[in-house]
Amino acid sequence: MANSKKEKIIIIGGGIAGLTAGIYALNSGFEAEIFEKNAIAGGECIGWNRKGFHIDNCIHWLTGTRKGTDLYDIWTKVGALSDDMEYADIDSFYTSTYNGTRVTLYNDLEKTEKELIAASPEDEEEIKKFIQAVEISKQCVFPGKKPMEMWGVKDYIEMGKNMADFPKVMKEFSKISLEEYAKRFKSPLLKRMITDYLPKEYAAYSFLVSYATMADGNGKIPMGASLQMSLRMEEKFKELGGIIHLGCSIEKIVIEKKRATGIELKNGEFVSADYVIPTIDAYPLFKKLLPEKYMPGEFAKAYNEPGTYPITSGFQIAYAVSENFSEGETIFVDIDPLKVAYGTCDRMYVKAYGYDPIFVKDGKQVIQTCITQSHEDFAVWKSYTKEEYNKVKEELIAEVSKRIVANFPELEGDLEVLDCWTPLTYERFCNAYHGSYMSFITTPEGKQIRTKGRIKGIDNLYVAGQWTSSPGGLPVAAASGKFAIQRILKTQKRSIDI
Ligand SMILES: Cc1cc2nc3c(=O)[nH]c(=O)nc-3n(C[C@H](O)[C@H](O)[C@H](O)COP(=O)(O)OP(=O)(O)OC[C@H]3O[C@@H](n4cnc5c(N)ncnc54)[C@H](O)[C@@H]3O)c2cc1C
Fold first, then answer.
1. 34 Cβ inside 6 Å of ligand 1
2. Considering the domain 8-45+69-83+225-307+446-491 in this protein, what is its CATH number?
3. What is the pTM for the complete model shown?
4. Residues 6 or more apart from 250 whose CB is under 8 A from it?
Protein backbone atom coordinates (compact mmCIF):
# COMPACT_ATOMS: atom_id res chain seq x y z
CA MET A 1 0.00 0.00 0.00
CA ALA A 2 1.20 3.47 -0.79
CA ASN A 3 2.07 5.77 2.13
CA SER A 4 -1.20 7.37 3.24
CA LYS A 5 0.54 10.61 4.17
CA LYS A 6 1.49 11.25 0.60
CA GLU A 7 -0.69 13.57 -1.44
CA LYS A 8 -2.79 11.69 -3.95
CA ILE A 9 -3.01 12.55 -7.63
CA ILE A 10 -5.82 11.01 -9.63
CA ILE A 11 -5.17 10.77 -13.33
CA ILE A 12 -8.05 10.24 -15.73
CA GLY A 13 -7.00 8.30 -18.83
CA GLY A 14 -4.24 5.71 -19.21
CA GLY A 15 -2.87 6.84 -22.57
CA ILE A 16 0.62 8.25 -23.12
CA ALA A 17 -0.19 11.51 -21.29
CA GLY A 18 -1.75 9.73 -18.30
CA LEU A 19 1.05 7.18 -17.96
CA THR A 20 3.69 9.90 -18.24
CA ALA A 21 1.96 12.06 -15.62
CA GLY A 22 1.69 9.00 -13.37
CA ILE A 23 5.37 8.12 -13.58
CA TYR A 24 6.53 11.70 -12.98
CA ALA A 25 4.06 11.98 -10.09
CA LEU A 26 5.47 8.89 -8.38
CA ASN A 27 9.05 10.03 -9.00
CA SER A 28 8.14 13.34 -7.34
CA GLY A 29 6.85 11.67 -4.18
CA PHE A 30 3.10 11.66 -4.83
CA GLU A 31 0.72 8.75 -4.69
CA ALA A 32 -0.76 8.22 -8.16
CA GLU A 33 -3.81 6.34 -9.40
CA ILE A 34 -4.82 6.12 -13.04
CA PHE A 35 -8.43 5.45 -14.07
CA GLU A 36 -8.72 4.15 -17.63
CA LYS A 37 -12.02 3.25 -19.26
CA ASN A 38 -10.57 0.55 -21.50
CA ALA A 39 -9.42 -2.90 -20.44
CA ILE A 40 -5.94 -2.02 -21.68
CA ALA A 41 -3.63 0.97 -21.20
CA GLY A 42 -2.19 3.02 -24.10
CA GLY A 43 -5.17 5.00 -25.42
CA GLU A 44 -4.51 5.79 -29.10
CA CYS A 45 -1.01 4.31 -28.85
CA ILE A 46 -1.95 0.67 -29.13
CA GLY A 47 -2.38 -2.25 -31.51
CA TRP A 48 -4.44 -5.43 -31.61
CA ASN A 49 -4.35 -8.95 -32.99
CA ARG A 50 -6.47 -10.37 -35.80
CA LYS A 51 -6.12 -13.87 -37.24
CA GLY A 52 -2.82 -14.19 -35.42
CA PHE A 53 -1.36 -10.97 -36.92
CA HIS A 54 -0.53 -7.85 -34.95
CA ILE A 55 -2.03 -4.62 -36.28
CA ASP A 56 -0.35 -1.38 -35.26
CA ASN A 57 -2.49 1.66 -34.55
CA CYS A 58 0.01 4.38 -33.98
CA ILE A 59 3.70 5.06 -34.40
CA HIS A 60 4.60 6.12 -37.94
CA TRP A 61 7.33 8.16 -36.35
CA LEU A 62 8.19 8.87 -32.74
CA THR A 63 9.65 12.33 -32.26
CA GLY A 64 12.40 12.24 -29.64
CA THR A 65 14.35 9.13 -30.57
CA ARG A 66 17.61 11.11 -30.76
CA LYS A 67 19.72 11.01 -27.62
CA GLY A 68 20.32 14.40 -26.02
CA THR A 69 16.89 15.85 -26.88
CA ASP A 70 14.40 16.84 -24.16
CA LEU A 71 11.93 14.29 -25.45
CA TYR A 72 14.47 11.46 -25.41
CA ASP A 73 14.98 12.27 -21.74
CA ILE A 74 11.21 11.97 -21.17
CA TRP A 75 10.84 8.77 -23.21
CA THR A 76 13.66 7.07 -21.30
CA LYS A 77 12.44 8.27 -17.89
CA VAL A 78 9.01 6.79 -18.53
CA GLY A 79 10.42 3.52 -19.90
CA ALA A 80 9.17 4.00 -23.46
CA LEU A 81 12.72 3.97 -24.84
CA SER A 82 16.08 2.87 -23.53
CA ASP A 83 19.65 3.33 -24.74
CA ASP A 84 19.67 -0.20 -26.17
CA MET A 85 16.38 0.21 -28.06
CA GLU A 86 16.40 -1.07 -31.64
CA TYR A 87 14.68 0.94 -34.34
CA ALA A 88 13.14 0.00 -37.68
CA ASP A 89 15.70 0.08 -40.45
CA ILE A 90 13.86 2.51 -42.70
CA ASP A 91 15.77 5.15 -44.64
CA SER A 92 12.88 7.19 -46.01
CA PHE A 93 9.77 9.10 -45.00
CA TYR A 94 7.62 7.89 -47.92
CA THR A 95 7.42 7.41 -51.67
CA SER A 96 4.95 9.12 -54.02
CA THR A 97 4.06 7.71 -57.41
CA TYR A 98 2.12 9.13 -60.33
CA ASN A 99 1.65 7.97 -63.88
CA GLY A 100 4.52 5.50 -63.83
CA THR A 101 6.94 7.91 -62.13
CA ARG A 102 8.04 7.94 -58.48
CA VAL A 103 10.05 9.93 -55.97
CA THR A 104 11.16 9.07 -52.46
CA LEU A 105 11.75 11.43 -49.56
CA TYR A 106 14.89 9.87 -48.12
CA ASN A 107 16.29 10.69 -44.72
CA ASP A 108 19.39 11.72 -46.67
CA LEU A 109 18.39 15.15 -47.96
CA GLU A 110 21.12 15.32 -50.61
CA LYS A 111 19.89 12.06 -52.09
CA THR A 112 16.32 13.40 -52.05
CA GLU A 113 17.36 16.63 -53.77
CA LYS A 114 19.04 14.70 -56.58
CA GLU A 115 16.06 12.40 -56.95
CA LEU A 116 13.52 15.23 -57.07
CA ILE A 117 15.55 17.26 -59.57
CA ALA A 118 15.99 14.20 -61.79
CA ALA A 119 12.21 13.66 -61.67
CA SER A 120 11.41 17.31 -62.41
CA PRO A 121 14.30 19.47 -63.65
CA GLU A 122 11.92 22.38 -64.30
CA ASP A 123 11.28 22.57 -60.52
CA GLU A 124 14.96 22.73 -59.57
CA GLU A 125 14.77 26.14 -57.92
CA GLU A 126 11.70 25.26 -55.84
CA ILE A 127 13.18 21.86 -54.93
CA LYS A 128 16.36 23.50 -53.63
CA LYS A 129 14.26 25.90 -51.54
CA PHE A 130 12.27 22.93 -50.21
CA ILE A 131 15.37 20.98 -49.21
CA GLN A 132 16.88 24.06 -47.59
CA ALA A 133 13.67 24.70 -45.63
CA VAL A 134 13.69 21.08 -44.41
CA GLU A 135 17.36 21.40 -43.43
CA ILE A 136 16.58 24.55 -41.42
CA SER A 137 13.52 22.88 -39.87
CA LYS A 138 15.86 20.40 -38.18
CA GLN A 139 16.41 23.27 -35.72
CA CYS A 140 12.81 22.92 -34.58
CA VAL A 141 13.30 20.42 -31.77
CA PHE A 142 10.42 19.91 -29.32
CA PRO A 143 11.06 21.79 -26.05
CA GLY A 144 10.22 19.40 -23.21
CA LYS A 145 12.25 20.64 -20.23
CA LYS A 146 9.46 22.63 -18.62
CA PRO A 147 6.20 24.41 -19.51
CA MET A 148 6.77 27.63 -21.44
CA GLU A 149 5.20 29.83 -18.77
CA MET A 150 8.12 28.79 -16.54
CA TRP A 151 10.73 29.81 -19.07
CA GLY A 152 13.20 32.49 -18.07
CA VAL A 153 15.30 34.84 -20.18
CA LYS A 154 18.06 32.21 -20.43
CA ASP A 155 15.65 29.68 -21.92
CA TYR A 156 14.52 32.12 -24.60
CA ILE A 157 18.11 33.04 -25.43
CA GLU A 158 19.02 29.37 -25.78
CA MET A 159 16.02 28.74 -28.01
CA GLY A 160 16.93 31.78 -30.10
CA LYS A 161 20.44 30.41 -30.55
CA ASN A 162 19.32 26.88 -31.42
CA MET A 163 16.58 27.99 -33.77
CA ALA A 164 18.24 31.03 -35.29
CA ASP A 165 17.04 30.45 -38.86
CA PHE A 166 13.72 28.74 -38.20
CA PRO A 167 11.68 31.99 -38.00
CA LYS A 168 12.42 32.42 -41.72
CA VAL A 169 10.73 29.10 -42.42
CA MET A 170 7.78 29.99 -40.21
CA LYS A 171 7.39 33.36 -41.90
CA GLU A 172 7.15 31.77 -45.31
CA PHE A 173 5.41 28.48 -44.55
CA SER A 174 3.05 29.07 -41.61
CA LYS A 175 0.67 31.20 -43.62
CA ILE A 176 0.16 28.84 -46.53
CA SER A 177 -1.55 25.47 -46.59
CA LEU A 178 0.05 22.40 -48.13
CA GLU A 179 -2.48 22.66 -50.95
CA GLU A 180 -1.24 26.16 -51.80
CA TYR A 181 2.39 25.16 -51.35
CA ALA A 182 1.98 22.28 -53.82
CA LYS A 183 1.00 24.80 -56.51
CA ARG A 184 4.55 26.18 -56.53
CA PHE A 185 5.73 22.96 -58.17
CA LYS A 186 5.16 22.34 -61.87
CA SER A 187 5.45 18.56 -61.81
CA PRO A 188 2.16 16.77 -61.10
CA LEU A 189 4.17 14.13 -59.23
CA LEU A 190 5.79 16.67 -56.90
CA LYS A 191 2.49 18.45 -56.35
CA ARG A 192 1.10 15.15 -55.12
CA MET A 193 4.19 14.42 -53.04
CA ILE A 194 3.65 17.64 -51.08
CA THR A 195 0.03 16.88 -50.17
CA ASP A 196 0.30 13.10 -49.83
CA TYR A 197 1.26 12.66 -46.19
CA LEU A 198 -0.54 15.28 -44.12
CA PRO A 199 -4.05 16.56 -44.85
CA LYS A 200 -3.83 19.36 -47.43
CA GLU A 201 -5.29 21.95 -45.01
CA TYR A 202 -2.22 21.71 -42.75
CA ALA A 203 0.02 24.78 -42.60
CA ALA A 204 2.98 23.91 -44.86
CA TYR A 205 5.59 24.24 -42.12
CA SER A 206 4.11 21.20 -40.27
CA PHE A 207 5.13 18.98 -43.18
CA LEU A 208 8.63 20.50 -43.34
CA VAL A 209 9.13 19.94 -39.61
CA SER A 210 7.82 16.36 -39.82
CA TYR A 211 10.20 15.49 -42.64
CA ALA A 212 13.08 17.30 -40.89
CA THR A 213 12.46 15.24 -37.74
CA MET A 214 12.88 12.04 -39.77
CA ALA A 215 15.85 13.35 -41.74
CA ASP A 216 17.53 14.37 -38.49
CA GLY A 217 17.29 10.84 -37.03
CA ASN A 218 14.89 12.12 -34.36
CA GLY A 219 11.72 10.40 -35.59
CA LYS A 220 12.41 6.68 -35.76
CA ILE A 221 10.08 3.76 -35.13
CA PRO A 222 10.98 1.67 -32.07
CA MET A 223 10.93 -2.05 -32.82
CA GLY A 224 8.13 -3.96 -31.13
CA ALA A 225 5.07 -1.86 -32.07
CA SER A 226 3.07 0.89 -30.38
CA LEU A 227 1.16 -1.23 -27.86
CA GLN A 228 4.40 -2.65 -26.49
CA MET A 229 5.70 0.87 -25.90
CA SER A 230 2.58 1.75 -23.91
CA LEU A 231 2.82 -1.50 -21.95
CA ARG A 232 6.46 -0.75 -21.05
CA MET A 233 5.26 2.56 -19.63
CA GLU A 234 2.42 0.90 -17.72
CA GLU A 235 4.91 -1.58 -16.28
CA LYS A 236 7.21 1.23 -15.17
CA PHE A 237 4.27 3.02 -13.53
CA LYS A 238 3.30 -0.12 -11.62
CA GLU A 239 6.91 -0.92 -10.63
CA LEU A 240 7.13 2.53 -9.02
CA GLY A 241 4.04 1.75 -6.93
CA GLY A 242 1.35 3.30 -9.12
CA ILE A 243 -2.15 1.84 -9.24
CA ILE A 244 -3.98 1.60 -12.54
CA HIS A 245 -7.71 0.81 -12.64
CA LEU A 246 -8.56 -0.61 -16.06
CA GLY A 247 -12.10 -0.83 -17.39
CA CYS A 248 -13.00 2.09 -15.13
CA SER A 249 -14.82 4.94 -16.81
CA ILE A 250 -15.05 8.28 -15.00
CA GLU A 251 -18.38 10.05 -15.16
CA LYS A 252 -17.65 13.28 -13.40
CA ILE A 253 -14.99 15.40 -11.72
CA VAL A 254 -16.48 16.63 -8.45
CA ILE A 255 -15.93 20.34 -7.82
CA GLU A 256 -16.58 21.97 -4.45
CA LYS A 257 -15.55 25.47 -3.47
CA LYS A 258 -13.20 25.90 -6.41
CA ARG A 259 -11.49 22.57 -5.76
CA ALA A 260 -11.64 19.21 -7.52
CA THR A 261 -12.33 17.04 -4.49
CA GLY A 262 -12.28 13.83 -6.50
CA ILE A 263 -13.97 11.82 -9.20
CA GLU A 264 -17.16 9.87 -9.60
CA LEU A 265 -17.07 6.43 -11.20
CA LYS A 266 -19.77 4.93 -13.41
CA ASN A 267 -21.18 2.96 -10.45
CA GLY A 268 -21.57 6.21 -8.50
CA GLU A 269 -18.58 5.58 -6.22
CA PHE A 270 -16.63 8.70 -5.22
CA VAL A 271 -12.83 8.64 -5.02
CA SER A 272 -11.15 11.58 -3.31
CA ALA A 273 -7.96 13.26 -4.47
CA ASP A 274 -5.60 16.07 -3.60
CA TYR A 275 -5.06 16.80 -7.28
CA VAL A 276 -6.85 15.67 -10.44
CA ILE A 277 -5.17 15.43 -13.84
CA PRO A 278 -7.59 14.69 -16.69
CA THR A 279 -5.77 13.54 -19.83
CA ILE A 280 -8.79 12.59 -21.92
CA ASP A 281 -10.00 14.24 -25.10
CA ALA A 282 -10.99 17.87 -24.39
CA TYR A 283 -14.52 17.53 -25.80
CA PRO A 284 -15.85 14.92 -23.34
CA LEU A 285 -13.82 16.64 -20.61
CA PHE A 286 -15.61 19.96 -20.99
CA LYS A 287 -18.94 18.56 -22.16
CA LYS A 288 -19.36 15.73 -19.67
CA LEU A 289 -16.80 15.41 -16.88
CA LEU A 290 -16.87 19.11 -16.03
CA PRO A 291 -19.71 21.63 -16.27
CA GLU A 292 -19.44 23.31 -19.68
CA LYS A 293 -18.85 26.74 -18.13
CA TYR A 294 -15.24 25.67 -17.54
CA MET A 295 -14.52 25.20 -21.26
CA PRO A 296 -11.76 27.65 -22.23
CA GLY A 297 -12.73 30.17 -24.92
CA GLU A 298 -10.21 28.86 -27.43
CA PHE A 299 -11.80 25.40 -27.35
CA ALA A 300 -15.34 26.78 -27.63
CA LYS A 301 -14.22 28.78 -30.68
CA ALA A 302 -12.58 25.76 -32.29
CA TYR A 303 -15.68 23.57 -31.79
CA ASN A 304 -17.87 26.33 -33.24
CA GLU A 305 -15.65 26.83 -36.29
CA PRO A 306 -14.90 23.35 -37.64
CA GLY A 307 -13.92 24.79 -41.03
CA THR A 308 -11.03 26.72 -39.47
CA TYR A 309 -10.23 23.96 -36.99
CA PRO A 310 -10.30 20.67 -38.91
CA ILE A 311 -9.44 17.34 -37.34
CA THR A 312 -7.80 14.14 -38.62
CA SER A 313 -9.25 10.71 -38.49
CA GLY A 314 -9.04 7.76 -40.84
CA PHE A 315 -10.81 4.95 -42.64
CA GLN A 316 -8.35 2.08 -42.35
CA ILE A 317 -7.88 -1.48 -43.54
CA ALA A 318 -5.21 -4.01 -42.55
CA TYR A 319 -4.33 -6.99 -44.76
CA ALA A 320 -1.96 -9.92 -44.59
CA VAL A 321 0.08 -10.32 -47.81
CA SER A 322 3.16 -12.18 -48.89
CA GLU A 323 6.31 -11.27 -46.98
CA ASN A 324 8.07 -10.66 -50.31
CA PHE A 325 5.88 -7.67 -51.09
CA SER A 326 7.87 -4.53 -50.53
CA GLU A 327 7.35 -1.40 -52.54
CA GLY A 328 9.12 0.80 -50.02
CA GLU A 329 7.70 1.04 -46.53
CA THR A 330 5.05 3.67 -47.30
CA ILE A 331 3.98 4.33 -50.86
CA PHE A 332 1.28 6.67 -52.18
CA VAL A 333 -0.55 5.83 -55.38
CA ASP A 334 -3.18 7.37 -57.64
CA ILE A 335 -6.54 5.61 -57.53
CA ASP A 336 -9.85 5.82 -59.34
CA PRO A 337 -11.85 8.35 -57.31
CA LEU A 338 -13.45 6.71 -54.31
CA LYS A 339 -16.16 8.23 -52.12
CA VAL A 340 -15.51 7.39 -48.48
CA ALA A 341 -18.29 8.76 -46.27
CA TYR A 342 -18.56 12.44 -47.34
CA GLY A 343 -15.39 13.14 -49.30
CA THR A 344 -13.90 11.59 -52.41
CA CYS A 345 -10.24 10.63 -52.55
CA ASP A 346 -7.98 9.97 -55.51
CA ARG A 347 -4.79 9.14 -53.58
CA MET A 348 -4.12 6.36 -51.14
CA TYR A 349 -1.16 4.75 -49.46
CA VAL A 350 0.01 1.29 -48.62
CA LYS A 351 2.39 0.80 -45.74
CA ALA A 352 4.25 -2.52 -45.53
CA TYR A 353 5.10 -3.58 -41.97
CA GLY A 354 7.55 -6.37 -42.81
CA TYR A 355 10.38 -4.34 -41.24
CA ASP A 356 9.52 -5.72 -37.79
CA PRO A 357 9.09 -9.47 -37.09
CA ILE A 358 6.15 -8.67 -34.79
CA PHE A 359 4.08 -7.99 -37.95
CA VAL A 360 5.22 -11.12 -39.81
CA LYS A 361 3.80 -14.65 -39.50
CA ASP A 362 4.15 -17.78 -41.64
CA GLY A 363 5.73 -15.97 -44.59
CA LYS A 364 3.12 -13.20 -44.53
CA GLN A 365 3.33 -9.60 -43.35
CA VAL A 366 0.77 -6.95 -42.45
CA ILE A 367 0.11 -4.03 -44.79
CA GLN A 368 -2.20 -1.15 -43.90
CA THR A 369 -3.88 1.72 -45.65
CA CYS A 370 -5.54 4.83 -44.24
CA ILE A 371 -7.83 7.29 -46.01
CA THR A 372 -8.00 10.61 -44.15
CA GLN A 373 -11.40 11.46 -42.67
CA SER A 374 -12.80 14.86 -41.65
CA HIS A 375 -15.60 16.38 -39.54
CA GLU A 376 -17.98 15.92 -42.49
CA ASP A 377 -16.97 12.29 -43.00
CA PHE A 378 -17.53 11.61 -39.31
CA ALA A 379 -21.08 12.98 -39.56
CA VAL A 380 -21.84 10.55 -42.40
CA TRP A 381 -20.43 7.55 -40.51
CA LYS A 382 -22.46 8.61 -37.49
CA SER A 383 -25.69 8.76 -39.50
CA TYR A 384 -25.56 5.06 -40.48
CA THR A 385 -27.50 2.34 -38.73
CA LYS A 386 -25.40 -0.60 -37.53
CA GLU A 387 -26.44 -2.63 -40.60
CA GLU A 388 -25.64 0.24 -42.98
CA TYR A 389 -22.31 0.82 -41.26
CA ASN A 390 -21.25 -2.81 -41.70
CA LYS A 391 -22.49 -2.91 -45.30
CA VAL A 392 -20.64 0.31 -46.24
CA LYS A 393 -17.46 -1.01 -44.65
CA GLU A 394 -17.72 -4.26 -46.65
CA GLU A 395 -18.31 -2.34 -49.89
CA LEU A 396 -15.39 -0.04 -49.24
CA ILE A 397 -13.09 -2.95 -48.42
CA ALA A 398 -13.91 -4.40 -51.87
CA GLU A 399 -13.32 -1.05 -53.59
CA VAL A 400 -10.06 -0.33 -51.79
CA SER A 401 -8.81 -3.88 -52.45
CA LYS A 402 -9.52 -3.45 -56.18
CA ARG A 403 -7.50 -0.24 -56.21
CA ILE A 404 -4.58 -1.81 -54.36
CA VAL A 405 -4.44 -4.64 -56.88
CA ALA A 406 -4.68 -2.15 -59.77
CA ASN A 407 -1.50 -0.54 -58.47
CA PHE A 408 0.25 -3.68 -57.25
CA PRO A 409 -0.82 -6.50 -59.59
CA GLU A 410 1.47 -8.91 -57.73
CA LEU A 411 -1.04 -8.75 -54.84
CA GLU A 412 -3.86 -10.25 -56.96
CA GLY A 413 -5.21 -13.16 -54.90
CA ASP A 414 -2.80 -12.36 -52.06
CA LEU A 415 -4.86 -9.85 -50.03
CA GLU A 416 -6.29 -11.34 -46.87
CA VAL A 417 -8.41 -8.78 -45.03
CA LEU A 418 -7.56 -8.68 -41.32
CA ASP A 419 -9.58 -5.74 -40.07
CA CYS A 420 -11.24 -2.48 -41.07
CA TRP A 421 -11.96 0.48 -38.80
CA THR A 422 -13.32 4.01 -39.03
CA PRO A 423 -13.56 7.32 -37.12
CA LEU A 424 -16.34 5.74 -35.05
CA THR A 425 -13.83 3.19 -33.75
CA TYR A 426 -11.76 6.00 -32.20
CA GLU A 427 -14.85 7.65 -30.78
CA ARG A 428 -15.92 4.38 -29.18
CA PHE A 429 -12.48 3.33 -27.97
CA CYS A 430 -11.05 6.62 -26.70
CA ASN A 431 -14.05 9.01 -26.59
CA ALA A 432 -12.21 10.86 -29.37
CA TYR A 433 -13.94 14.00 -30.65
CA HIS A 434 -15.24 13.19 -34.16
CA GLY A 435 -12.86 10.23 -34.15
CA SER A 436 -9.84 12.53 -34.19
CA TYR A 437 -6.64 10.88 -33.08
CA MET A 438 -4.63 14.08 -33.14
CA SER A 439 -5.60 17.52 -31.82
CA PHE A 440 -6.87 20.29 -34.15
CA ILE A 441 -4.97 20.55 -37.42
CA THR A 442 -2.69 23.60 -37.55
CA THR A 443 -4.04 25.64 -40.46
CA PRO A 444 -2.93 29.07 -41.74
CA GLU A 445 -6.28 30.55 -40.61
CA GLY A 446 -6.69 28.86 -37.22
CA LYS A 447 -4.85 29.90 -34.09
CA GLN A 448 -2.62 27.19 -32.67
CA ILE A 449 -4.08 26.01 -29.36
CA ARG A 450 -1.55 26.21 -26.55
CA THR A 451 -2.98 25.99 -23.06
CA LYS A 452 -1.26 26.27 -19.71
CA GLY A 453 -3.18 23.25 -18.48
CA ARG A 454 -5.12 25.24 -15.85
CA ILE A 455 -8.85 25.82 -15.62
CA LYS A 456 -10.08 29.16 -14.37
CA GLY A 457 -12.04 28.60 -11.16
CA ILE A 458 -10.58 25.19 -10.17
CA ASP A 459 -7.46 25.39 -8.07
CA ASN A 460 -6.10 21.85 -8.01
CA LEU A 461 -6.96 20.57 -11.48
CA TYR A 462 -4.18 20.29 -14.08
CA VAL A 463 -5.14 19.33 -17.63
CA ALA A 464 -2.78 17.17 -19.70
CA GLY A 465 -3.15 15.21 -22.95
CA GLN A 466 -2.54 15.90 -26.60
CA TRP A 467 -5.41 18.42 -26.83
CA THR A 468 -3.52 20.88 -24.61
CA SER A 469 -1.40 21.89 -27.60
CA SER A 470 -2.26 21.48 -31.26
CA PRO A 471 -1.55 19.54 -33.41
CA GLY A 472 -1.18 16.96 -30.62
CA GLY A 473 0.64 13.68 -31.17
CA LEU A 474 2.83 11.58 -28.90
CA PRO A 475 5.37 14.33 -28.04
CA VAL A 476 2.66 16.71 -26.86
CA ALA A 477 0.92 13.94 -24.92
CA ALA A 478 4.08 12.90 -23.07
CA ALA A 479 5.35 16.42 -22.39
CA SER A 480 1.92 17.54 -21.14
CA GLY A 481 1.95 14.73 -18.56
CA LYS A 482 5.32 15.86 -17.26
CA PHE A 483 4.29 19.54 -17.36
CA ALA A 484 1.19 18.85 -15.23
CA ILE A 485 3.41 17.50 -12.45
CA GLN A 486 5.84 20.42 -12.79
CA ARG A 487 2.92 22.84 -12.45
CA ILE A 488 1.86 21.14 -9.22
CA LEU A 489 5.45 21.20 -7.90
CA LYS A 490 5.72 24.89 -8.74
CA THR A 491 2.63 25.73 -6.65
CA GLN A 492 4.27 23.82 -3.80
CA LYS A 493 7.46 25.84 -4.32
CA ARG A 494 9.39 22.62 -5.00
CA SER A 495 12.04 21.99 -7.64
CA ILE A 496 10.66 21.42 -11.13
CA ASP A 497 13.89 19.81 -12.26
CA ILE A 498 12.43 16.33 -12.76
C1 LIG B 1 -3.65 5.76 -36.69
C2 LIG B 1 -2.86 6.67 -35.80
C3 LIG B 1 -1.58 7.02 -36.14
C4 LIG B 1 -0.84 7.87 -35.32
N5 LIG B 1 0.46 8.13 -35.64
C6 LIG B 1 1.20 8.89 -34.82
C7 LIG B 1 2.59 9.06 -35.08
O8 LIG B 1 3.15 8.49 -36.00
N9 LIG B 1 3.28 9.90 -34.25
C10 LIG B 1 2.69 10.57 -33.22
O11 LIG B 1 3.37 11.33 -32.53
N12 LIG B 1 1.38 10.38 -32.93
C13 LIG B 1 0.63 9.56 -33.71
N14 LIG B 1 -0.69 9.34 -33.40
C15 LIG B 1 -1.31 10.12 -32.32
C16 LIG B 1 -1.04 9.54 -30.94
O17 LIG B 1 -1.48 8.22 -30.87
C18 LIG B 1 -1.79 10.39 -29.92
O19 LIG B 1 -1.40 11.73 -30.07
C20 LIG B 1 -1.50 10.01 -28.47
O21 LIG B 1 -1.51 8.63 -28.30
C22 LIG B 1 -2.51 10.71 -27.56
O23 LIG B 1 -2.23 10.40 -26.22
P24 LIG B 1 -3.11 11.00 -25.03
O25 LIG B 1 -2.70 10.32 -23.81
O26 LIG B 1 -3.05 12.48 -25.08
O27 LIG B 1 -4.63 10.64 -25.40
P28 LIG B 1 -5.35 9.22 -25.57
O29 LIG B 1 -4.45 8.24 -26.19
O30 LIG B 1 -6.65 9.51 -26.23
O31 LIG B 1 -5.60 8.76 -24.07
C32 LIG B 1 -6.70 9.17 -23.33
C33 LIG B 1 -7.20 7.97 -22.57
O34 LIG B 1 -8.32 8.36 -21.78
C35 LIG B 1 -9.26 7.31 -21.80
N36 LIG B 1 -10.58 7.87 -21.44
C37 LIG B 1 -11.38 8.64 -22.20
N38 LIG B 1 -12.48 8.98 -21.52
C39 LIG B 1 -12.37 8.40 -20.30
C40 LIG B 1 -13.19 8.40 -19.14
N41 LIG B 1 -14.36 9.05 -19.08
N42 LIG B 1 -12.77 7.69 -18.05
C43 LIG B 1 -11.59 7.02 -18.07
N44 LIG B 1 -10.78 7.01 -19.14
C45 LIG B 1 -11.16 7.69 -20.24
C46 LIG B 1 -9.20 6.77 -23.20
O47 LIG B 1 -9.72 5.46 -23.28
C48 LIG B 1 -7.68 6.84 -23.47
O49 LIG B 1 -7.06 5.64 -23.10
C50 LIG B 1 -1.42 8.43 -34.16
C51 LIG B 1 -2.70 8.04 -33.79
C52 LIG B 1 -3.42 7.14 -34.59
C53 LIG B 1 -4.74 6.66 -34.13
1. no
2. 3.50.50.60
3. 0.97
4. 12, 35, 37, 263, 264, 265, 266, 289
